[in-house]
Design a protein that fits this description.
Layout lengths: L10 H5 L33 H29 L1 H12 L2 H11 L7 H32 L6 H25 L7 H35 L2 H18 L3 H17 L4 H32 L3 H36 L1 H5 L5 H6 L3 H42 L5 H25 L8 E4 L3 E5 L5 E5 L42
Antiparallel strand pairs: 1-2, 2-3
Helix pairs in contact: 2-3, 2-5, 2-7, 3-7, 4-7, 5-6, 5-7, 6-7, 6-9, 6-10, 7-8, 7-9, 9-10, 10-11, 11-14, 14-15
Length: about 500
C-alpha cells in the first residue's frame, strides 16, 4: 500500500483516515521533565501602544460609568438603602455567572473579555440607559402621556442596544474570540447579568427597603426586600439574560459565516428579537394594571416567556456539546497529518472523556500533567474551531489567512509541547503505534503484537506517534487548510 493512500471501510475510515505506518520504531523514551516544572503555555500576544490606548480607553469608560452609577444610586437611595440593595442584588450573581461559565467549558474564553462584558453591562449600559430612560420619562410627561410608556417604548430599545454594544465591540475588534453561538450567549449573558445586578440594586434598595422604611419602618423595608427578591430574582431572574441571549445568537451566527449579508443582518435580527421580547415583558404588567386583569401578566409569562426560556436553555445545552462534536469532525485532518492519534480525538468528544484524560494525566505526571492535559484540551478545541473557520472561508484577506495559518502553527506547536509532557509516562500502558488500521503494541516482556482498534476509541491515553509530525515547508500548516500538502512522512508499507 502506498503511503498516500487512504484506508477505507474500516475503523480508520470511520474515525480518521491515517496513512499506514512503517516498521515499528524503537521504544520511545519519555522526555525528562524536572519535578515540579511548569506545564507549557500558549504564547502571549504583545501589548503594543495601540492596544494599550484602546485598553486604557475601555477601562476609563467603565470606571466613569461605575462612578456615575454609584453617585446616582447613592444620592437617590441613601447609604443604608444602597448597602442593602447591593448585598441583596449580588447574591444571585455567582449562580448566574456560573451557569454561563458552565456553557463555556470546552473552550473557555479569556477572563479579561468575560470581565469586560460583565462590567460593560453593569456600568456602561446601566449609565446610558438610566439617562435615556429618565429623558424619555420627562418627555412623555411633558407630552401628557403616561410615564409607564417609558418601560414599553424606550427601555427595551436602549437597554438591549447598550447591553449588546460590549459584545459587539468584541466581535468587531476581537472576532477570533467569537468561536460561535455559545460564545455569543456567554458574552451577552454576562453583560445582561451585570446590567440586571445594578438594576436590582435600584429595585431592592429603593422600591423595597427605602420605601418600606419611610412608610412603616425597617421591618417593613426588610419584608419588601424579601418579596421583591423572590419575585424579581428567584422567579424572573432569567429575564435580562433571556432577552440579550437573542442578540448573542445573532452575534454568534455572524461570527461563523463568510456571507457578508448574514454577518450584517444576523446581529440586527437578534437585537430586534431581544427588543421585542423585552418590550412584551414590560407590556404585560402595564396591560394588567390598565385593565385590572392581573391574569394577563400571568398568562403572558407562563404561556410565552417560560416556553421561550426553556427553549433557549435547550439550545444552549445543545450548543455546549457542539464544540465537543466539532473536534471529532475536524481534528481527523491532523490525524492524517500525523499530529494526533484517533484515541486523542475521541477523548476530546465529551467532558466526561476529558475528565478521564485529566485523571490519567495526574496519575502519570502529577499536577503538572493535569495542567498540561488541560492546556492540550483547550488548544485542541481551539484548533478545531480554527480549522472549521478555514473550511467556512471566514478569512477573506491575505493578512487574515496568514494570521490564521500562524495561529494554527502556534497551536500545533503548543499541542506537541503538551503531549510531550505526559505521553509515554504510563508504566502500566504498553507502547503503542497507530498505523491506520490497527495498533502495534510492545508489551513489558518485549513481545510485539498487532491489536485491532475498538469500535469506539474511548481510551483517553494518547498513543505515541510512529514518526514525529513533519515540518511543513510552507507556513500555512497541514493539508486541507491554506497551505501546500506535505509529503507523507511514512515509508512504504512493509
Amino acid at each position: 500500500m502506498r503511503p498516500d493512500q487512504w484506508v477505507a471501510g474500516d475503523y480508520a475510515d470511520r474515525m480518521a483516515v491515517t496513512p499506514p505506518g512503517g516498521a515499528l520504531p524503537p521504544p520511545p523514551t519519555a522526555p525528562a521533565v524536572p519535578s515540579g516544572s511548569p506545564a507549557p503555555r500558549m504564547p502571549l500576544r504583545r501589548l503594543g501602544w495601540r492596544r494599550f490606548l484602546a485598553l486604557a480607553g475601555v477601562v476609563l469608560l467603565i470606571a466613569a460609568g461605575a462612578l456615575f452609577m454609584v453617585f446616582t444610586l447613592g444620592e437617590s437611595l441613601g447609604a443604608e438603602a444602597l448597602l442593602v440593595g447591593v448585598i441583596a442584588a449580588i447574591l444571585p450573581v455567582p449562580v448566574l455567572v456560573s451557569c454561563f461559565l458552565w456553557l463555556d467549558r470546552y473552550e473557555p474564553e479569556p477572563l479579561k473579555y468575560l470581565i469586560f462584558c460583565f462590567a460593560w453591562g453593569a456600568f456602561v449600559s446601566t449609565a446610558i440607559s438610566l439617562l435615556v430612560n429618565e429623558t424619555g420619562a420627562r418627555l412623555f410627561k411633558d407630552w401628557g402621556l403616561p410615564a409607564a410608556l417609558t418601560a414599553v417604548l424606550v427601555a427595551p430599545f436602549i437597554e438591549e442596544l447598550t447591553k449588546a454594544a460590549g459584545p459587539l465591540l468584541l466581535l468587531i475588534f476581537r472576532r477570533r474570540e467569537f468561536s460561535g453561538v455559545t460564545d455569543g450567549l456567554v458574552y451577552c449573558g454576562l453583560s445582561a447579568v451585570g446590567f440586571a445586578m445594578v438594576e436590582n440594586i435600584l429595585y431592592l434598595g429603593g422600591y423595597g427597603y427605602r420605601t418600606g422604611v419611610e412608610e412603616y419602618g425597617p421591618a417593613t423595608g426588610a419584608r419588601q426586600v424579601i418579596a421583591i427578591f423572590i419575585v424579581r430574582i428567584l422567579l424572573f431572574g432569567f429575564a435580562h439574560p433571556l432577552f440579550t441571549s437573542m442578540t448573542g445568537v445573532g452575534l454568534g451566527v455572524a461570527a461563523r459565516t463568510a456571507d457578508r449579508r448574514v454577518r450584517f443582518l444576523a446581529p440586527i435580527a437578534g437585537l430586534l428579537v431581544a427588543m421585542m421580547l423585552h418590550g412584551t415583558w414590560n407590556l404585560l404588567p402595564s396591560l394588567a394594571a390598565a385593565t385590572g386583569q392581573p391574569l394577563i401578566a400571568l398568562y403572558g409569562y407562563i404561556g410565552v416567556m417560560v416556553p421561550i426560556f426553556f427553549g433557549m436553555v435547550g439550545l444552549a445545552v445543545w450548543l455546549r456539546a457542539w464544540e465537543g462534536r466539532l473536534t471529532e469532525r475536524t481534528l481527523p485532518d491532523y490525524v492524517r497529518a500525523g499530529w494526533l492519534t484517533p484515541p486523542e480525538v475521541a477523548a476530546l468528544g465529551s467532558l466526561g472523556r476529558r475528565h478521564a484524560a485529566r485523571t490519567w494525566a495526574r496519575r502519570v505526571a502529577g499536577d503538572g500533567g493535569v495542567r498540561a492535559m488541560r492546556g492540550y484540551q483547550f488548544a485542541a478545541t481551539r484548533l478545531a474551531l480554527l480549522r472549521d473557520g478555514m473550511r467556512r472561508g471566514l478569512d477573506r484577506k491575505p493578512a487574515e489567512r496568514h494570521r490564521t495559518a500562524r495561529e494554527e502553527r502556534e497551536l500545533l506547536d503548543a499541542i506537541g509541547a503538551y503531549r510531550a509532557f505526559f505521553v509515554g509516562r504510563d508504566p502500566q500502558a504498553p507502547v503503542g503505534v497507530w498505523d491506520g488500521q490497527r495498533y502495534h503494541l510492545r508489551f513489558p516482556d518485549g513481545s510485539q503484537r498487532a491489536v485491532e482498534a475498538p469500535d469506539e476509541p474511548v481510551v483517553p491515553i494518547p498513543v505515541v506517534l510512529a514518526p514525529p509530525p513533519p515540518t511543513f515547508p510552507h507556513p500555512y500548516g497541514p493539508p486541507g487548510g491554506y497551505g501546500h500538502r506535505p509529503a507523507a512522512p511514512w515509508g512504504p508499507h512493509a
